[in-house]
UniProtKB/TrEMBL annotation:
It is an enzyme of class 3 (hydrolase). Belongs to the metallo-dependent hydrolases superfamily. Adenosine and AMP deaminases family. It comes from Pseudogulbenkiania ferrooxidans EGD-HP2. The keyword Hydrolase applies. This is adenosine deaminase. Its EC number is 3.5.4.4. Its cofactor is Zn(2+). Keywords: Hydrolase, Metal-binding, Zinc. InterPro entries: A_deaminase_dom (IPR001365), Ado/ade_deaminase (IPR006330), Metal_Hydrolase (IPR032466). Residues 2-236 form the Adenosine deaminase domain. SUPFAM superfamilies: Metallo-dependent hydrolases.
């Protein structure tokens, strides 16, 4: 990130996966994550916030409760800025999960980002906004084919986290199709270019920005990206 001149970053992390790897409690894993990322961010002069990820599935409500308990055990640390729902969009989740997400958002003032529309199901994007109260949508590529959905996202100021390289590698955008970011721009849907799994894909933010420019974004568009990122970030008071 420092090599890509990143000044602030939001890091998604599956704390519950870390508990398995490190054979510790969720509270211990979150505490270690806060400490390690905090030291790294400070050493490079980067502001960072943590987003806690819940994976779709039968136990997602339990997972959310476990994460929130760890968060409270540590005194509601300001390092944690948001919640995320991720995982296979074809997998269901408990009916009470959207309500639990909204309650956590209201109670703790956390931002809400939902992975939705990455697999072509526009209804997941609708649900992310209408049921979960999402502030941002992760990927959202399916929205590019639904004008009504694009109008809803635009009118509600819901920001889409665009990850061009990841979308091509995962097949969310077929190799013979243009990325829907041009549809987002046409309908006035706010979006910010992001990197996704940079350690796995071996591509950083600069690579995704270059990919976005190859899809038609101008230098002026890219200059606006920093301001858009600040506006929709869950991190407060970014210079």
């Amino acid at each position: 990130m420092a090599d890509n001149n990143v000044r602030f970053v939001e890091l998604r992390s599956s704390v519950l996966y870390l508990t398995t790897l490190q054979k510790c409690s969720a509270t211990e894993a979150l505490e270690r994550l806060i400490e390690s990322t905090g030291k790294a961010a400070q050493s490079h002069g980067i502001r960072r916030g943590l987003i806690l990820t819940v994976t779709r599935g039968d136990y997602s409500a339990v997972s959310l409760s476990t994460l929130l308990q760890a968060y409270q055990d540590l005194g509601n640390p300001k390092d944690v800025i948001g919640l995320d729902l991720a995982g296979d969009e074809e997998i269901g989740y408990p009916t009470e999960l959207p309500r639990l997400f909204r309650e956590a958002k209201d109670r703790f003032g956390l931002g809400m980002t939902i992975h939705a529309g990455e697999t072509g199901r526009t209804e997941n994007v609708w649900s992310a906004v209408e049921l979960f109260g999402a502030d941002r949508i992760g990927h959202g590529t399916a929205a590019g084919k639904d004008p009504k959905l694009l109008e809803m996202l635009s009118s509600n100021g819901i920001c889409i986290e665009v990850c061009p390289i990841s979308n091509w590698l995962t097949g969310a955008v077929p190799p013979n199709e243009a990325h829907p970011l041009q549809q987002f721009r046409q309908y006035g849907v706010p979006f910010v270019v992001c990197s996704d799994n940079p350690a796995i894909h071996q591509r950083g933010l600069a690579d995704d920005q270059a990919a976005a420019m190859a899809e038609g974004l101008s230098i002026a568009d890219m200059r606006q990206q920093y301001e858009i990122a600040k506006r929709y970030s869950f991190i407060e008071e970014i210079d």
